[in-house]
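Typical record was shown:
=====
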Amino acid sequence: MFIFAIVLSTIYTSYTGTFRIVDETEHQADIYRMARIALERMQEDLESVYIPRNLKSSKSEEDSGQVFEFVGEDMEIKGSSADSLRFISRAHLVFSEQEQASGTAEIGYYAAENDAEEGLVLYRKDAPGGIEASGEDTGGLVLCEKLRSVNFTYHDAEGEEHDNWDSTTEAFKDRIPQMVSILLEFENKSDPDTPFRFLTKVALPMGQG
């Protein structure tokens, strides 16, 4: 009986250890998949940023379409970085036959608390008439969840970094960054003090100095 108990204990420990490793591996694979999809989507959106040829006319004429803007805000949720960003882009996603496949749209990213579990959820909003004009303050397409933080950093023509960017202010009047750094941190169940970090930098082809 003593030997049998030792054998059972060894087998149980081996199985539980194997299941734990499998669970952690699946969790990491899910995190890497979400990070890859989110970063690829944001990269395509930013590389398709749109600047009207005649900024003055687009702002002075009410019927000329969307007003140019590129606004990134440094924000926090319960002490964690939860930056937001919105800009005009040609990377509008079409999900119905009634929508136009081409044209520009205002794209926005924002983070919010997850009601179902711990961590933040990163949303992507895509509104052809502008996010404010759509009348929707929440919602959007879920890019990824289980996030610890979302951080955007903006690089100007001189290489200087900025936590905020607003093309409607005098400091960045009618300009977009030369490059945007995106840092996503995901929850790590096996080691909460060491989150999974994913960093990429996107050069904006139409960036103006």
